[in-house]
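User: I'm new to structure prediction. If I give you an amino acid sequence, what do you actually give back? Let's try with this one:
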Amino acid sequence: MVSVKKTGDEQHQHHLENGDSHHSHEHKDSSGHQDICVSIVPIFNHLAKEQMNEIAEVIQHFDYKKGENIYCAGDQSDALYIVRRGKIRIYRLSDSGKEQLVRILRPGDFTGELALFNEGIHEAYAEAMEETNVCTIRRNDLQTLLNKYPAIALKILAEFSSRLEQSEKQTARFATEKVETRLALFLAECLDDQQPSTEFVLPMSKKDIASYLGTTPETISRKLLELEELGYIKQKAKKRIEILDLEGLHLI
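Assistant: Good question. You get back a string of structure tokens that encode the predicted 3D arrangement of the chain. For your 252 residues, that looks like this:
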């Protein structure tokens, strides 16, 4: 059974709902640059400076330590959460307690977007993978902004479309592909299309890769070794992977 921490979650939800500025996680930007979250998020950074400043006025900042939950399944969903610094893992738990990683969020990424359209509860967990700073915008504030600036809604729909495509691709892989095929394609997709390098750092731990690909950490370790022995990849120090045969990986 996966152990799920709920450190500070009820407090966080309570303070979001009540607008309390004395929450232990809340972070006041000493430099006064409240627009940092706005400027790094694609759904906002296309707006004019004065419009971004308006959005920055309704943003709250919260700090989380590694392992702390930003929200849990069953919590009320009433805000958009934007990663300003750090990393967040979004995952679900099956009835048997098995964990399924959904995605990893990095600076500029966001979660909680379903709260923009209707009231409901979170169906997944959001956990800080390291020291993380999160910006939040409450539903009412964001809906007001959407009415004023429809371009934001179009950007959010584009993100919805991208996530749906990724989810459908992942579901199809679970149903039709072997573990080694899922892993090979995952590694191929880790390469940055904008960079000529054939090396990258694994974006998550083997445990999280296993959860994301629907297998076990032991299987991931074994399959990585097999791919290395077959000459497709080379494992290096500090989670670095070099792709030696990209075309071959796509054909596994």
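You can read the tokens as a compact description of the fold. Here is one thing that stands out. The first strand starts at residue 60 and ends at 64.
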